[in-house]
## 1
Amino acid sequence: MTKRLLRAGTLGLLCSFTPVAAQAHMGFSRFDVVEGVLNPLLSMSTLLLPVVTGLWVAFCRRCFGARLAIFALAVLVGAGAQTQGVVMPYADSMVFVALIATGLATIFAWQAPFRLAAPWLALSGWSLGQLNMIKETGTLKDPLLFAFGIAVGSGLLAVYFAGVIRARRFSWLPIAGRVLASWITAAGLMVWVLQVYQ
């Protein structure tokens, strides 16, 4: 029952924001937490990493909630640090490295020990938070609120996909998760290569 509520609640929250997604970067809801929540949905690089992170965490048997919390908190810290002038060089490349590595871990269903997963999730989340803020720095009236929204949006994506796979309502869901991770990894690699050589 708890897992079903987790899935339904997370999906409901995501769906509640989709009607205003088209307005997010057009000035209708700028500088507030709603746009921050929507921001990860509007770019492939910022969308795919939370999704594949959720898929990977779903295959880890221990400290399920703690892993997701570390990722979401790291996104918040990374985005918040960006607003204070702490800038991570090559954040976009780091996000794609994290995406590809996490995708491979998901494909092989690697159940990483918490002591290894925690720093990796923290680094991935930090990089994602930094990347989400790069294009917005200097244009925000309330950057910390926007950063909080980014963490919420990225966290919800990870929680939703982790919850779907973790619940195992259908026997084929774990396989579907690994197939999706394969596609995400390939897409991330392709986009990264195109960015490097464009």
## 2
Amino acid sequence: MDGGKLMIEKFDGSDYGFWRMQIKDYLYGKDLWQPLENKSIGMAEAEWKVLDRKAMSVIRLPLSRNVAFHTAKEKTTKGSYDAAAV
């Protein structure tokens, strides 16, 4: 942690297991886990889309340019998460 902020290392395609663990923990800690499991439990569609987009940004922002390229066409958190495992 740097000044109280949680830091997730840029994922460059190596050590996917470590990156996956960090992302999952972060998503659960921020209550953004539902999109990762593709479960919109009791949510309106508009609410779900916002939650899914928030979670997708958590997954995409710590990706290196080369890995992010593989997630660019994905429309969901789950799709981006799976595509990062190149």
## 3
Amino acid sequence: MTENPPTASPYNGGQPPYPPRPPYGPPAPFAPPPPPKKKGMSTGKIVLLSILGVCVLCLGSSVLLAATGGGGDDNPNDVVAADDGTSQSASAAPHSGKTKAAAPAKKTISPTPTKPKAKPKVTFKVSGSTPSGVDITYGSDSDNRQGGDSAPWSATLNRDDSGDTQWYSITAQLQGGGDITCTILVDGKAIASGHASGGYNICQAQIIQGWTGTWKKV
């Protein structure tokens, strides 16, 4: 008869004892994961690069001002070689750095318009007293006109100096009494004159153009 093996008992040492129970209380907290690393440059690098950029900009401005403000390393008394091989001293005027003001625009002077030359004149005059009136005729060999009937009287015509007109004359006849003088003037200058007094006497004056072109008394 087969014997059954003995049943294991916690008290006989046949099985390992139960593990000890954990103490009562909240579980231990887990440690937070580390923050992810940010891609790109850090704030410190950005500040450093900004400072370097400002320094480079200031340095560039200083170099530009020095280059345009006149003043170079050239000596104004340096010797410059001419094209013919000789040496000449170049005296450069110092550059003040100031921009010259633009020269004012020249005023355009318009030419003064010339007045047309006045045409030559011939004037006829009768002066004196004519209580009974006077009959006046005047003009040229190609233009005879009737004048006034009392003195003083005057009239002016354009004078023909071309040679086509041969003479100018004036005739004044008293009408029953009086005393008169008749005169012909060329450009305001008296050239010929006549006189009449009393009754129906006639006063007459005449001028002609000479071969030199001047007018003279007949």
